[in-house]
Amino acid sequence: QVQLVESGGGLVQAGGSLRLSCAASVRTFSSYAMGWFRQAPGKEREFVGAISWRGGGNTNYADSVKGRFTISRDNAKNTVYLQMNSLKPEDTAVYYCSADLRGSYLAIESRRWDYWGRGTQVTVSS
């Protein structure tokens, strides 16, 4: 069983930055592709980005965050990060961490991911 715990959310002004963390309780963290999704009120959960398993040499981002958000992973700490810069009010959402054993970092559909955290709220004020 994989447990994922997100942290780092909060309230920030437009143009500001936040770094989200997701700690995974699993023995073979490096074997999991890791992803980030978000869900705004009244909207479906949407893909934000993902990073490949093993060394995390490959990443994939939604067009809406490309160039502003960066995903990285530290396998020694069983943690994946989402650095969010130049935040916009439309980035306001609950952000969820996801994991998939030997999964594809190109998977943008939430049903492709097996494990989920409980989410952390990000609010960007204008």
Order of helices and strands: EEEEEEEEEEE
How would you classify the helix and strand content by structural class? mainly beta
Strand segment tally: 11
Q: What is the CA-CA span between the terminal residues?
A: 40 Å
Number of helices: 0
Coarse shape: globular
Helix percent reads under 10%
List keywords for this structure.
four-stranded antiparallel β-sheet, globular, 0% helix, 126 residues, seven-stranded mixed β-sheet, 50% strand, 11 strands, mainly beta
Any chance you could write out the topology, listing elements then pairs?
Blueprint: E1 3-7, E2 10-13, E3 18-25, E4 32-39, E5 46-51, E6 59-61, E7 69-74, E8 79-84, E9 93-101, E10 115-116, E11 120-125
Q: Care to describe what's here?
A:
The protein has 126 residues and is mainly beta. It has no helices and eleven strands. β4 (32-39) and β5 form a beta hairpin. It is globular. The termini are far apart. The model has no long low-confidence stretch (mean pLDDT 97).
Brief rundown of the structure:
The protein is an all-beta fold and 126 residues long. Helices cover 0% and strands 50% of the residues.
